[in-house]
Amino acid sequence: MNYKSVVVTRRGGLDALQIVENDLRPPAEGEARVRILATPVCQDDVAIRVGNRPFLKKPPFTPGYAFIGVVAAIGEQVTNVAVGDRVAALTQFGSHAEHIYWQAEKLVQVPESLDMAEAVTLILNYLVAYQILHRVAKVRSGDKVLIVGASGGVGTAFLQLGQLAGLKMYGLASPSKHPLLAEYGATPIDYRTQDFVQVLRQAEPDGLDYVFNGMGEEYYGRGLAVLRRGGVLVHYGAPQSFARFVLLVLKLLFYNLWPNGKKIEGYGTHRLGVDLFKEDWQKLFELLEEGQIKPLVVQKFSILEAVKAYEMLESGQVAGNLVLLAPELL
Ligand SMILES: NC(=O)c1ccc[n+]([C@@H]2O[C@H](COP(=O)([O-])OP(=O)(O)OC[C@H]3O[C@@H](n4cnc5c(N)ncnc54)[C@H](OP(=O)(O)O)[C@@H]3O)[C@@H](O)[C@H]2O)c1
Questions:
Q1: What is the number of the ligand 1 atom nearest to the C-alpha of 270?
Q2: Cis before 40? omega within 30
Q3: Hey, what CATH class is 2-110+296-329 in?
Q4: 165-223 residue pLDDT tens
């Protein structure tokens, strides 16, 4: 039997993507084969394909950062999941396919009652926002925060979780997306035409508690400028090249040694480990089940239509999440 996957055949644009047919093999020891039901399309899938990252995987490879699926087969020594279980994982690569082989111990069980398109946004975008808010910053109700990139997949997760945590939020976004930010109770600022430092100094003369920055190191200086003493900028955007990575490390050292009572902390999903993912996904599944969060899924595509989803994401018009689904869920 065969299955199909989306493959990045070389660095480049959408024409570097191909649908490739692969043979199904029995899972190896400790491995499960999962039939994918839902997988998100995110900015990192694009960056890795076009080459905007300092450390890159060599093509050919299948992109796809996360998935929810059904266990179709298990290898020897697998005891934590069984055939038919609904499971999820954070993968970084490989999820844009009909099937994936994955280490069983890294899979988490997913409640079947959840809408799969909504639930799969929790595996990456909501996890990032949740861990930054509650594990790195440890926000408290009433804290004042700025979200850089507030209209994107991670940005809208920040808005919903921030609203739930009782934060006073400001968000940078393009004007067409300002009504969305306002819906979540955030004050929008147009980063292209407004000087956000000036706007925030007027609105919050005592300074903000946190800045959450999913963009580059170009936001360090201005981000720190709007913080109060003791405030923290949490950086989670990946650098676009090796040179930008070096610049980021140098700026991080410089700003953290500068005696202004403010600091920059870095966050990456690789830092906290799978046990904390599992704990936080459990919490996020509960929030979704209770209706306390409602991920914004803008459009759904079939897994093999990934190119259309990438095209839409790369247009810059998307506010929220794009999700690829197995045909029976469309
Ligand atoms: N560290 C981690 O583990 C981790 C995990 C996931 C994502 N990330 C990072 O998080 C970032 C967002 O990812 P995503 O998937 O949410 O992307 P996305 O859905 O494409 O959203 C990105 C947002 O960034 C905004 N933007 C673009 N250029 C900007 C600029 N110069 N200044 C301010 N905002 C700008 C856009 O806003 P407008 O359209 O409103 O202009 C867009 O809504 C990416 O850099 C990604 O690498 C990191």
A1: 3
A2: no
A3: alpha beta
A4: 999 999 999 999 999 999 999 999 999 999 999 999 999 999 999 999 999 899 999 99
Q: Cα of 271 to ligand 1 centre, how many Å?
A: 19
Any idea what the Cα angle at residue 187 is, between residues 284 and 136, rounded to 5°?
A: 40
User: Domain residue spans in the chain?
Assistant: 2-110+296-329, 124-270
Residue 35 and residue 97 in contact, taking contact as beta carbons nearer than 8 Å: no
Query: ∠ CA(164), CA(166), CA(179), 5° rounding?
Result: 75
pLDDT of residue 271: 81
Report the C-alpha gap between 160 and 183 in whole angstroms.
10
Amino acid at 183: E
**Is domain 124-270 annotated with CATH 1.25.40.10?**
no
The percentage of residues in the chain with a pLDDT greater than 70, rounded to a whole number, is: 100
Q: Whose CA is nearest to atom 18 of ligand 1?
A: 152
From 39, 41, 42, mutation site for ligand 1 pocket: most ligand atoms within 8 A of C-beta: 42
For the CA of 269, the nearest atom of ligand 1: 3
Inter-CA distances, 151 with 65, 88, 132, 171, Å: 20, 25, 17, 8
Give the C-alpha separation, 92 to 187, whole Å: 32
**What is the rounded distance in angstroms from the CA atom of residue 282 to the CA atom of residue 259?**
40
Ligand 1 atom with minimal separation from the 216 CA: 45
Q: Do domains 2-110+296-329 and 124-270 have the same CATH topology?
A: no
Residue of minimum CA distance from atom 42 in ligand 1: 152
Q: Which of 300, 278, 275 is nearest to 37 (CA)?
A: 300
93, HSE (Cβ side, Cα atoms, 13 Å): 12
Per-residue pLDDT, averaged over 133-148, amounts to 98
The CA-based angle 184-279-275, given to 5 degrees, is: 130
Please state, in angstroms and rounded to a whole number, the distance separating the CA atoms of residues 209 and 231: 5
Q: How far apart are CA 142 and CA 298, in angstroms?
A: 30
CB atoms within 10 A of CB 195: 11
Q: Which residue's alpha carbon is nearest to atom 36 within ligand 1?
A: 149
